[in-house]
Request: fold
Amino acid sequence: MIKRALIVVHRWLGVVFCLFFVIWFPSGIGMMYWDFPEVTPADRLERSPALDPATIRVSPAQAVDALGQPHPPEQIRLNSFDGRPVYRVRVGRAEQIVYADTGTTRGDVSRDVMARVASAWAGQPAAAATVEPIDVDQWTVQGSFRSLRPLWKYSWPGGEQVYVSQVSGEVVQYTTPASRLGAYLGPIPHWLYFTPLRKHQLAWSRVVTWTSGIGTLAAIVGLAIGVWMYSPVKRYRSQAGTTSIPYRGQKRWHMVLGLIFGVATATWAFSGMLSMDPFPLTRRGDRGDIPAALRGGIPAAALSTNPRSVLARLHNERVKELELTSFDGEPVYLATTGRADTRIVTASGEVGTAFDRDRIRKIVTDAAGPSGLAELREITAYDWYYLDRRGARPLPVILARVNDADQSRYYIDPRTARVVGSYRSSSWMSRWLYHGLHSLDAPWLYAHRPAWDIVVITFMLGGTALGVTSLILAWRVIGRTLWRSDS
Reply:
């Protein structure tokens, strides 16, 4: 009786949800190699012109005075906007822009400015582009674009599309025919990122959560049925003799594939559901002592430093950004070059490629407070909590593990004295049940590619085959149901 009920439940869940599995698994392979298009700060910096010292006529202090802010700035960066040097001054979450050549604050962004920004990004004349206002489309459906609207889309005949925010004047999205194709092969079907659904955040979140949750249940029920019905002693009879599986044709293939890939299918669907955070846990707030100690406030005396003298120290480098900051209480400039490399210029004019590691260790040790440090060492390879299959995250880094209740871990890049990764034991569900099960992100597999590719693609192909057999069986069930209703 129980077995019969389980079979009925699995059959009809399969009829309803098999198509999702057929979509999820092949697109999972696409996700391994293609991302959803986005514009990162590194992309903006790569396309920015190098700073010209001759055009910088305003000091950081004058830029701050021009804003008239009652609170001291938390971050000051010097880079470019619309071909001109600008100071980007951040107080809290708000960032304001002051032109470094005139000392005036940037006002509303005009259509002409947006056209020049888009043209410079694409390297094509603005007159050749088709321009249209955009509220929401396939490439701007995320909630992060909400505060940047209205957007203007510039499309060139070759297929490049540049989206500029009228609020910030910055390029906020960029797509090419290749990046759009990659998105349709991976992220869009995998995340159910279809515009009519995705633009409704709550509805999309519920659909993804419930489909993956019920899909997990369907996989678990199917696995239970398969194990229950499998006979190691071959008690079933067929035309070819005795067998361990009571089915023929597609049903047999479905059961065989389910026994082999059923556990992976269930855990993969479940971990996919966890990406939507359906079980929010009570999380302790970030321990800000160590990051704040490494990056203190900006000393008032440093605001009068002339960036031109800093650039003169780096005359052989194509510097695209200068960040005025401090380290261990002393003002420093952190310069980012055209190769996305960094240089450090101290108040005394010394140039270096990394901060003093002993001073970093002392700062971290002092900032750990009464809890103290359980571990402090430099690592040259990724570990279980700091890893990147593309190898883009910096190495070596200094690992600091605090002896607190959360066993907080911080990974500090000596080149910038910034925390570039962190982990707390309260995040175990995200680390192990989501990333661990869904991406199989193990350092050994990442370090020995294509081992990771082979393992993951094997699971994806097995899940795809299981989904295809489900789809065929679902079609037969629907066909029989419709035939009976017609008769």
Q: What stands out?
A: The chain has a mean pLDDT of 90.
